[in-house]
Design a protein that fits this description.
Order of helices and strands of chain A: EEEEEEEEEEE
Mean pLDDT of chain A: 91
Number of helices of chain A: 0
Largest sheet of chain B: 7 strands, mixed
Strand content of chain B: over 45%
Structural class of chain A: mainly beta
Shape of chain A: globular
Oligomer: heterodimer
Shape of chain B: globular
Strand content of chain A: over 45%
Radius of gyration of chain A: 13 Å
Distance between the termini of chain B: 32 Å
Helix content of chain B: under 10%
Order of helices and strands of chain B: EEEEEEEEEEE
């Protein structure tokens, strides 16, 4: 199966609520990145967390990494309708520069 | 918006045709990638390139070829299009030393009839 697997596959929330997405991976990594994809478009890089980091913030985004559980989470606080998109994690194994993308979480934020 | 461009954005073509999907980036990135993505699904790596005259096959490279004659240009060619090639094709680039953060183009939506 894929190196990175996100859950849930789909998430539907109201504006103002927080959205949490999780990602699991199988092998040791150098870093893990989160990307966003609007419908029919390419992916946009959101945030990167290195294997020696546990938490990182960027605006309304908070990413955590638990290397013992081989998992990461992306939290979007105070969500907005414009946050509606698919979110992918991409893990980068040690010694490789080819990230492995999961299937993504489809987030819908209702106004 | 990243400085990476793909043309055409949409293409509808008949079975058996030869097609080339164009990808160019103006960021001077040494690495470039092609992915195939079906709606709501993960990205599958088709080909990648370390730099000029260096290309490698990914997980899903059969029936397609790439070239990297110039740093900024990484075209993907399907010699004989089939309905199973119907998908979205995403081009990306990254720079060595940047933790391999990838910058994506807008994609080409290909439909093979």
């Amino acid at each position: 199966s894929q190196q990175g697997e996100e859950d849930p596959q789909a998430l539907s929330i109201q504006e103002g609520e927080n959205a949490t997405m999780n990602c699991s991976y199988k092998t040791s990594i150098n870093n893990l990145q989160w990307y966003r994809q609007n419908s029919g478009r390419g992916l946009v890089h959101l945030i990167l967390i290195r294997s020696n980091e546990r938490e990182k913030h960027s605006g309304r985004l908070r990413v955590t990494l638990d290397t013992s559980k081989k998992s990461s989470s992306l939290l979007i606080t105070a969500s907005r309708a414009a946050d509606t998109a698919s979110y992918f994690c991409a893990s980068l194994k040690g010694g490789s520069y080819i990230p492995t993308f999961g299937r993504g979480t489809s987030l819908i934020v209702h106004p | 918006e990243a400085d990476i461009y793909q043309t055409p954005r949409y293409l509808v073509i008949g079975t058996g045709k030869k097609i080339t999907l164009e990808c160019s980036q103006t960021m001077g990135h040494d690495k470039m990638y092609w992915y195939q993505q079906d709606p709501g699904m993960e990205l599958h790596l088709i080909h990648y390139s370390y730099g000029v005259n260096s290309t490698e096959k990914g997980d899903l490279s059969s029936e397609s070829t790439v070239s990297r004659i110039r740093t900024e240009h990484f075209p993907l060619t399907l010699e004989s299009a089939r309905p199973s090639h119907t998908s979205q094709y995403l081009c990306a680039s990254s720079r060595t030393g940047s933790m391999d953060t990838q910058y994506f183009g807008p994609g080409t939506r290909l439909t093979v009839l």
